[in-house]
Specification:
about 325 residues; alpha/beta; Rossmann fold; Methionyl-tRNA Fmet Formyltransferase, Chain A, domain 2; 7-stranded mixed beta sheet; 4-stranded antiparallel beta sheet
Length: about 325
């Protein structure tokens, strides 16, 4: 029976769903490694009520670790003593280097939520949606000394949708990718895993999401702004009247004539229209920083903006 050490993030639904799939098959989970507490934030947060892999492991008497540095000699010694056949990482945020990767008898394997070699690095689903990609998916690959550069084992492809958010796309990816857990274990036990080097063409790398990645500028295209707001509702912002305003929704609408970006074109009862690069956006709900939700027209009235005025750009 395959002996596996699981690496994940206990606050990530992505990690937990794949771990629970591992529990359902014939293998021996001999240890689990959680992200350090400071790195457990996630773009696909674990919902309340679903058991984390850490709790599940403790209930089964499986050793649990959360080293600040997985290359720490003490942790390496304990990991080596477990004598795993495979390391399986899903949503683990730390980079595993060669001292860790050389421990398993077979492979160190990672589940990465992109179609490698595209979107190596952090938060691939977020960046895929931000860039308005038609396809997303997941790659199971062998870990090597690079970042998401190891040989390919399996891939699943998922078509993105117009109104996808990060959680909705993650859900559809996971619906397909959890089925790869039993396939991986069975193929490893049968000695039939097929490794394919990653192609050079189409590779890309993305890093952490920063605060400025959510700042809107009305000179951007209507399609791009709509996609940004739709991907992370309530997180993209502009600044007006000395406060940040977070936009919940946006729809591209036709615009006639040449209008400067940010010009308020219409204010109706529940929505307003604003000129942006190459078109216009219809905006409905906005949230003040630290405050409640209100309609875009109500906000404009509150801060003294009318049709024809320029809504400030961050």
């Amino acid at each position: 029976m395959l002996r596996i050490v699981f690496f994940g993030n206990s606050e990530s639904l992505f990690s937990n769903r794949h771990y629970h799939a591992l529990e359902q098959i014939a293998c021996e989970v001999i240890g689990v490694v959680d992200a350090p507490p400071a790195q457990r934030s996630s773009t696909n947060t674990q919902p309340p009520g679903l058991s984390s892999f850490v709790l599940s492991a403790r209930q089964r008497g499986i050793p649990v670790f959360d080293p600040p540095n997985p290359q720490n000699p003490e942790f390496l010694a304990r990991l080596g003593d477990l004598a795993p056949d495979m390391l399986l990482a899903v949503g683990y945020p730390k980079i595993l280097k060669q001292p860790v990767l050389s421990i398993p008898r077979l492979f160190p394997v990672n589940f990465h939520a992109s179609l490698l070699p595209a979107y190596r690095g952090k938060h691939p689903v977020f960046w895929c949606l931000r860039n308005d990609e038609r396809w997303s998916g997941l790659t199971v690959h062998v870990m090597d000394s690079g970042i998401d550069t190891g040989d390919l084992l399996y891939q699943v492809r998922v078509l993105t949708r117009k109104n996808d958010t990060v959680p909705t796309l993650y859900d559809r990816i996971m619906d397909k990718s959890v089925k790869l857990v039993p396939r991986l274990v069975q193929d490893a036990e049968n000695g039939v895993l097929q490794c394919t080097p990653q192609p050079e063409a189409g590779n890309s790398y993305y890093s952490s999401i920063k605060e400025q990645d959510f700042r809107l500028c009305w000179s951007q295209s209507a399609r791009q702004l709509r996609r940004w707001i739709a991907t992370t509702p309530g997180e993209c912002y502009s600044t007006a009247a000395g406060m940040r305003l977070f936009f919940q929704d946006a729809e591209v609408v036709p615009a006639s004539g040449q209008n400067p970006p940010g010009k308020i074109l219409a204010l109706q009862r529940a929505a307003g229209t604003i000129a942006v690069g190459g078109g216009a956006l219809r905006l409905q709900q906005v949230r003040r920083e630290g405050g409640s939700m209100l309609s875009f027209p109500a906000l404009c009235k509150e801060i003294g903006l009318r049709v024809g005025d320029l809504f400030p750009c961050s």
